[in-house]
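#struct-help
A.M.: can someone run this one for me? Single chain, 229 residues.
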Amino acid sequence: MAVGTNRLPIAISGAMACITFIRAGKVDFWMAVKVVLPTLLGGVIGSLFINPIPSVYLQWIIVGSVVIALILLVTSIKKTLQKTHEEPPRFRYRDAFYLFLVGLWIGLIFLDGATYLLMVLILSMRLHLAEANAYKNIVVFVVTTGTLFVLGANHDIDWGVGLTLSIGGIAGGYIGAKFSMHELAKKWTYRMLLAIMIFELAHIIFLYSSGNLISGNGMMKLMHSATVK
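D.P.: on it. Structure tokens below:
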């Protein structure tokens, strides 16, 4: 239920960010459709496999996700965020496949999924940071909303807790969207991602040392620590 409840504030924060980006003229409708469809398909399929995964395996999947994302962050994402593409944006069959895989991960775990999505949008599809953030938030909103229907039907959402966590997501979605369109966004996006990754690793170590990593409350805290990304 922790994984399902975590999706509600993510969806609401993504909705606010989407509205902000659309008003700023950062979204092309047809590109948004191309990005959303394969990711949504992967997200819905991934959400169907949440419950069958035992908690003991789920915790190591989460740990592996954080470690891989941190490695990518310090080795390639910094250059990727600072890269300026002179070529026009593109969308190929391989990009659709990459997006499907990211959607599969978002539907299954979500943790660090937005980081992987940014890599596909910027490095493979040649989008600038502001545009990539716009499509990222559209994908997060649509895919998360789609998986909410699946998880809600399976009674895997604590709506009271989810709505409470969503209060801060409204302001966070707006402020984050505005900031990503600022000139300093490239530099500070990397710094904030690095700080979040370090916090996640410290949080995992703390939960593991206290024996709460695989508990319901431990999972909830760990999954919610990644909603800002």
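A.M.: thanks! The CA atoms of residues 14 and 121 lie 17 Å apart.
D.P.: also worth noting: The chain has a mean pLDDT of 75.
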